[in-house]
Specification:
Distance between the termini: 31 Å
Helix content: 25-40%
Strand content: 35-45%
Structural class: alpha+beta
CATH class: Alpha Beta
CATH topology: Trna Endonuclease, Chain: A, domain 1
Shape: globular
CATH architecture: 3-Layer(aba) Sandwich
Largest sheet: 6 strands, mixed
Number of domains: 1
Amino acid sequence: MTYAYSMDDAVQVANQAATDIEAWLWSKSETISVVNVENDPDYQRRDIDLIWTTHSGEILIEIKGDRWDRTRNLFFETHSNLEKGTPGCFMYTEADWLFYYFVNTHQLYRLPMPKTREWFLITMRRFRERSTTTPVGNSYYTTVGRLVPITTVMLEVAGIKMEQL
């Protein structure tokens, strides 16, 4: 099954997720700084959105914003642009943590990377594959991923935390 999204929708969700998560990180007592590096080409290449500096050190974060909280699934992107053969962010991010955030309910799932990716690569065939198309000018691109039940990933990967922002 394929769903269609506009680029504006995707940008709006991503911006809301980054804004909410940055505010939450700033509210934490251990925070020294939060730097948004989404527009920095060096960090884009590594698929890192935020650098969170705490008293314990620097933490690299990838943010995934989502509206589809009612499915009780996370969408792990395996191909960001199928037509160009571009791997999905979940497959190559160099972040320490993936912050998966549902913008409608303000639920944040903090997934340790690369531990979550290692688990996913072993188990991904058991999860349903889905794709979305996004129009760009006169064309479009297809994003492909797997629907992973939240309860499954939380039971099977140690260190995942859920926060209500």
